[in-house]
């Protein structure tokens, strides 16, 4: 998972602790939740045991929390939105700060694509309209045939 700030980690810990407690109160095993949510049991265990470094990106974790909460009869959307509101705000700030660096790498790609399109267009035009070979003098075979006719 991407690095989360301390507030986000604490929020995630609170959510996963609540989910684990509700699951244990209802006497539901991890495997049953995994079957209901189609989330691997290992991912659910990593969530409950706060091994967040083993989890995928935060947007996927949001989906896991939503489905996990729904499977327990809780409002999964509300649980997932409390987490993602913190994560999205932080990620959008990071994306905005890094956006200046990305624009410099796209300029050479655009130039490359334009050159590639021009080369493909010229090649297509050449293929569809081959140059016409025009010559003023007839070929040698024609000259020899004409001389044979005139000699008769």
Automatic annotation (TrEMBL):
<dbReference type="InterPro" id="IPR050400">
    <property type="entry name" value="Bact_Cytoskel_RodZ"/>
</dbReference>
<keyword id="KW-0472">Membrane</keyword>
<protein>
    <recommendedName>
        <fullName>Helix-turn-helix domain-containing protein</fullName>
    </recommendedName>
</protein>
<feature type="transmembrane region" description="Helical">
    <location>
        <begin position="106"/>
        <end position="128"/>
    </location>
</feature>
<dbReference type="InterPro" id="IPR010982">
    <property type="entry name" value="Lambda_DNA-bd_dom_sf"/>
</dbReference>
<dbReference type="Pfam" id="PF13413">
    <property type="entry name" value="HTH_25"/>
</dbReference>
<keyword id="KW-1133">Transmembrane helix</keyword>
<feature type="region of interest" description="Disordered">
    <location>
        <begin position="133"/>
        <end position="152"/>
    </location>
</feature>
<dbReference type="GO" id="GO:0003677">
    <property type="term" value="F:DNA binding"/>
</dbReference>
<keyword id="KW-0812">Transmembrane</keyword>
């Amino acid at each position: 998972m991407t690095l989360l700030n301390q507030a986000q980690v604490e929020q995630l810990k609170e959510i996963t602790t609540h989910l684990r407690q509700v699951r244990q109160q209802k006497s539901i095993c991890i495997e049953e939740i995994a079957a209901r949510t189609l989330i691997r049991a290992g991912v659910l265990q990593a969530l409950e045991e706060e091994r967040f470094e083993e989890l995928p990106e935060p947007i996927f974790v949001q989906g896991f929390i939503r489905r996990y909460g729904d499977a327990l009869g809780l409002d999964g959307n509300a649980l997932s939105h409390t987490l993602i509101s913190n994560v999205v705000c932080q990620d959008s700030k990071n994306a905005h700060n890094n956006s200046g660096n990305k624009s410099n790498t796209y300029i050479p790609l655009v130039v490359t694509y334009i050159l590639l399109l021009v080369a493909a267009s010229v090649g297509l035009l050449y293929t569809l309209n081959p140059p016409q070979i025009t010559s003023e003098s007839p070929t040698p075979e024609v000259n020899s045939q004409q001389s044979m006719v005139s000699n008769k």
